[in-house]
């Protein structure tokens, strides 16, 4: 099969890219479009480190074929801050020390952003369900969950 041209929106910007039929969204984002916050590790769907938002939902970008993303809306962690101001979930991760080496942090922040935007009354169990499949090798998950809960609380209080 031949390469095809796809158009996808990344962090609000339209991008046209030529992709091969077997190429992953991870490869396109990191190696062709240089969104290096999207981390690569297992390439097998096991670690979740490559998570991005696709049409609003967290997906493991190594498991999505680039050709499936024609017309899709993709958000990476670079797209969360506005005019240099961190988003609510980013501020909450800083406040609660939700990271150590930072390798997994973009994936957890994007999953957390999904929760904050879509699950205002998420319980601990529901938060864990969304985070399930994203692996952190450094920290306990407690600070990450605490950060997401803080962002949910801030959102209810109208903080931006
Ligand atoms: S690199 Fe995609 S799940 Fe590990
Ligand atoms: S903070 Fe190091 S892998 Fe999660």
Please explain how this structure is put together.
The protein has 160 residues and is an alpha+beta fold. It folds into two domains: 4-78, Beta-grasp domain (Ubiquitin-like (UB roll)), CATH 3.10.20; 88-156, DNA polymerase, domain 1. Helix content is 33%, strand content 16%. It has helices at residues 25-32, 88-95, 105-118, 124-131, 142-156, and strands at 4-10, 13-19, 51-54, 57-60, 73-75. A five-stranded mixed beta sheet has the order 2-1-5-3-4, sandwiched between helices. Strand 1 and strand 2 form a beta hairpin. Helix 2 (88-95) crosses helix 5 (142-156). The radius of gyration is 16 Å and the shape is globular. The termini are far apart. One FE2/S2 (inorganic) cluster binds next to loops.
List keywords for this structure.
Ubiquitin-like (UB roll); binds FE2/S2 (inorganic) cluster; alpha+beta; DNA polymerase, domain 1; 16% strand; 160 residues; 33% helix; five-stranded mixed β-sheet
